[in-house]
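The data layer described in this paper is built around a simple, fixed record for each protein. We quote a single record here, exactly as it is kept in our systems:
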Amino acid sequence: MNPELIEQTVRDYSGKLLKIAYTYTKNTCDAEDIVQEVFLSFITSRQEFASQEHIRAWLIRVTINKSKNHVKSAWIAKRSKMPEPCEELSCLELQKKDGLFKLSRHPLKAKEMLIIDFNLTVNSNSTISLQGSMKYADSNYGIGYLLNGTFHDVQKTSMDGTVDCSVTLKESGTFYWCINNTSGNTNYFSGNIQYRPDPPVYRDYGAGAISAEEGCTIQLSHIQGLLGDTEITGIFVYCHEKNMAKEYPEDTDSITFTVPEKGTYSIYAITKQGGLMDLNAYLSVDYPSDYKISNTT
C-alpha cells in the first residue's frame, strides 16, 4: 500500500476513530489500542478501495466491530453502563451558529446511535439542554449523554416525539449528547443544544462593550419594552476582565449597576433558545458628582 496514503489516512481519521472507540470502551488506553489495531488491519488489508469515502466507511465499520468485541469481555461488560450498542455508531461535530448548536432533520438510520460532539470542555454546575423532536414519534429511541466516558440515560421514547432534556453537571470534563435510534426504521432529529455555564459568562461576547471607571453607574431602563415578545431566561452585566457576570431575573425592567472596579462591561439577555440579545446600545453610564473628567482614558 502507498506509504503516502497510509500517512494521510492516519492523519485524517485518527481523531474520529478514537472518539468512536472511546464511546464503547470509556477508556482512553483501550480506545487507542483499538485504533492502532484498525490501522494495522488497514495497512495489511488486501481490500481494494474505490474512493476516500470507501476508506472512511471501512475504517468506521472495523472500529465499531473491534470495539464491540472489546466490550463483550466479562470484565468490561461488568463496568459498562452503556446501553446495548447499536449496529452502527456515528459522530457529528457541531459548530455554534447564532449562539446555538443546531441540527435540522439529521437522519438516524435503523439501530444507529448518534454521538454529538460540540467541541466544548464543560464546567461543573453548568447546565446543558437538548431540545427538539424526532419526526416519527412511534419509533423507539432514547436520549443520553457521555460525561468523561460514563453513559447516563436521560429520556426514553415520548408519545409525540418531543425531546426536552436538561442536565446540570456535577463535574467538569468532556460531554457528548447521544441519540439512540433503537427502532428498525430511519428517523430524523431536529433541534438545538444550549450550553449554559455557571455563572453564564461568554468570553467571546464583546460587541459594543463599554469601558467604565470604578464608582460609575451603568443604567438600563424599560428592558421589557426592549425585549418585546422575546422570551428570555435572564439578564446579565458581564465584566470582561474578571470573566464574571451578575445575573438579574428575566422579568427585570431596569438595572442600576455600580461598577466595582475599572473595566470593560456588557449587558445582554439570554433567550430561551440559548441565543444572546445585545442590550449595550441602550445603556447609559453616569459618573459620580465628584468624578474628575481628567481621569478618563
